[in-house]
Amino acid sequence: MATVIIPTPLRKFTNQQAKVQIPAKTVGEIIQSLATNFPDLKKHLLDEKGKIRSFVNVFAGEEDIRDLQEENTLVNDATLVSIVPAIAGGISL
Amino acid sequence: MSLENITFTREEKARYNRHIIIPGFGEEAQKKLKASKVLVIGSGGLGSPALLYLTAAGVGTIGLIDFDVVDDSNLQRQVLFDVNAIGQPKVEAAKRRLEALNPHVQFKLYNTHLNSANALEIFKDYDVVADGTDNFPTRYLVNDACVLLDKPNVYASIFQFEGQVSVFNYVDAKGQRGPNYRDLYPTPPPPGLVPSCAEGGVLGVLPGIIGSLQALEVIKVITGVGDVLSGRFYTFDALNFESRTFQIRRRDDNPVNGKNPTIHAPIDYEQFCGMRAVEEKPVREITAKELYEWQVTGKKFQLIDVREPSEYEIVEIGGELIPLNTIASNADRIATDREVVIHCKMGGRSTKAIRELEEKFGFTNLYNLKGGILSYIDEIRPELVKY
Fold first, then answer.
1. Does A89 contact B202 at a Cβ distance shorter than 8 Å?
2. Of these residues, B129, B286, B344, B357, which one is catalytic?
3. Does B185 contact A86 at a Cβ distance shorter than 8 Å?
């Protein structure tokens, strides 16, 4: 079990939930579970090959999972997993 | 930076007294501010508070880059401007306000688009760059130019209720260089996947908070006071009032300053951000003038507006409202027996709508209104409200 922080731009895909509790042992399981439970969220988190997108950062506690064991990073009940996408503000394209 | 020639008049000493009397700041730090040159990119939501505080604090030279003019819809968050500034170039309106705030500061104005051709030339004269731009291509351009020229980049970004701050490419007292934007986000989202503020909105006070934090870090970088937010990435969620600070690190595969750099000069950032994807065929377009001719000559066609209802309430030009996210489920409302013109605010969302309709349903009669309702107002109906 871990608590996942959903960033404001993606909350519309999680029924406006800011925090989601997910039973999982690794960050990869968490992301897969999010993609399954919230299908509209999937394309924002994963690319066509099922890898976490490069403009979406995932932190376990304070650490970037790319500095840990990436998707294999272990989580426990106390782990706060944060999803932080790139934002740029501003103009309509 | 030599501080020997930096002196303060009696008026300046009085003005900066509340800085000078802070233990650990003092006249030394105030002199560093006066000796420094800071370039603020964008004078909008983030640039407004950042510029006000940096000017008030007594930074010696401040450069402002912005190509835009002040619009009524800016005033909800861009506190540098007032109703008298509407229609004026932002950099000029900003300079008037800032000079009135602190006559001891020099301002350099760049009323231009920052691009790969001019960035290095503009940046080279400054000590610190504060990035408050509003789009991904410029974010990557600012980042790369700062790394190439060895300048610290104080980064701030906002969306809806969320803010981000970090200091990139900062070299600390031990000579250790911190990470930059490409270490944090190697590539940008493809256009359309993340909504922009113009579609998604931003709470007006949020850039006030985040732009002030940006000014704080600029002052710390210049003065060396405190621990600069380098190697750390701060996020603020205004809805829950929660902030988090993450650890970030340099990466060997960074194309600008990793192990094997491949970028040695600014690149084409719009292409890098996928905005001119060559494989996508262009959609058919119609100009505002052509649309007006169709309207006055009584030509039979259908006009569809794919903006949000809240935008439609502000101004509309007689189109049927079908917001972009409902376009596919309303495809049966779109005519197949005559031409159909689709518009939004500026032309981005209507292009997406046309691509979706062509791909899913095989429409061949769709036209995009070039420049959206804003162009139509500019060219045909200037009396209507712009936003």
1. yes
2. B344
3. yes
- What's the confidence (pLDDT) of residue A92? 33
Sheet containing B366-369, strands listed edge to edge, beginning at the edge strand earlier in sequence: B285-286, B366-369, B339-343, B301-305, B320-321
- Encoding tokens for residue B369? 């209104």
Q: What is the pTM of this model?
A: 0.82
**Residue of chain A whose alpha carbon sits nearest to that of B188:** A55
- Does residue B344 carry a catalytic annotation? yes
The first and second tokens of residue B236, run together, are 């603020």
The answer to whether the CB atoms of A86 and B136 lie below 8 A apart is yes
Element (H, E) at B144: helix B136-149
pLDDT in tens, B236-276: 999 999 999 999 999 999 999 999 999 999 999 988 887 75
pLDDT of residue B365 exceeding 80, the answer is yes
Cβ contact B189:A53 at 8 Å: yes
Per-residue pLDDT reduced to its tens digit, B299-309: 999 999 999 99
- Cα of B10 to nearest chain A Cα, Å: 42
Q: Which of residues 59-78 of A touch B (CB under 8 A)?
A: 59, 62-64, 66-67
CA B225/CA B227 separation, integer angstroms: 7
